[in-house]
Amino acid sequence: MIFETEKQFEKALVGNLEKFGWNDNGGVLEHPTEQDLLDNWVRILFESNGKIDCLNGCPLTHGEMQQILEQDHRAAGAHEAQRFHQCKLGQIKVLKKSLLEKMFV
To answer: Do residues 45 and 54 touch, judged by C-beta distance below 8 A?
Structure first.
């Protein structure tokens, strides 16, 4: 398919994303800063992993997110980084007392 304008391409892309389950409930970030992107990623990680057997409903701390970023930088490629994000490779140290209390009380 050939697009005459970028707008046509964007519309087709969003349509295909929606067809496969993507939604824009969180809103599109307009002209985001690096911090905006990191904050959005923290939110997405929590939404994906906030259940009882992962984050136990406790959002990531700044230190925990730093560990994730460090492991991303050490990853041999995108595939290895994705495996880490899916909890199939690597670990981070839990830094929040509230999560430890919930798990061991």
So the answer is: no
- Quickly list DSSP for 18-68: HHTT---TT-PPSS--HHHHHHHHHHHHHHHH-STTTTTT-PPPHHHHHHH
Amino acid letter, residue 95? L
Residue reference for tokens 């519309």: 11
pLDDT at position 97 is 61
pLDDT tens-digit series, residues 34-64: 988 888 888 888 887 767 667 777 788 888 8
d(CA 102, CA 89): 24
Long-range contacts of 54-60 (CB under 8 A, 24+ apart): 54/87, 55/99, 56/99, 56/102, 56/103, 57/102, 58/96, 58/98, 58/99, 58/102
pLDDT at 12 over 90: yes
Amino acid letter, 42: V
This prediction's pTM: 0.55
